[in-house]
Amino acid sequence: MTITQSNQRKYRRNPRKSRFKPRAATLFLLSTIILSAVVVGAWFAGEDKINAIFAEINLLQRNPPMWLEAPMVTGKYLLAPTVALLIAVWGIMRVSPQPRVWSRRLVVGILLLLTGRYILWRSFSTLNLDTALNGVFSLGLFGLEMFVLLSATIQLFLMLNVKERRHDADRKSIAVVEGNFNPSVDVLIPTYNEPTFILRRTIIGCQALEYRNKTIYLLDDTRRPEMKALAEELGCEYITRKENNHAKAGNLNHALTKINGELIVVFDADFIPTSNFLTRTVGFFQDEQLALVQTPQSFYNADPIAHNLGLENVVTPEEEVFYRQIQPIKDSAGSVVCAGTSFVVRRSALEKTGGFVTESLSEDYFTGINLSAKGYKLIYLDEKLSAGLAAENIGAHATQRIRWAQGTLQAFFIKSNPLTIKGLRPLQRLAHLEGLLNWFASISRVGFLLMPLAYSFFGIIPVQATVEEALYFLLPFYLTQLAVFSWLNSHSRSAILSEIYSIALAFPLALTVIKVMLNPFSKGFKVTPKGNAHNKFYFNWNLALPLILLFIGNAVSLWRNLGMCLSLLWQQTTTPELVEHFKGLDLGWIWSIYNLVLIGIALLILLDAPKADVYEWFDLRRVVRLDIGEKTAWGVTTMISEVGAEIALTQQIPIELLPGQSVNLEITEENLQLNAEVLRTGIKDEFLTIRVKFPLVTVPQHRRLVQMLFCRPGQWKHKFTPGEFQSFILLFKILLKPRILFDRKADVNAVMVSKV
Question: What domain range includes position 686?
Answer without folding.
Answer: 617-708
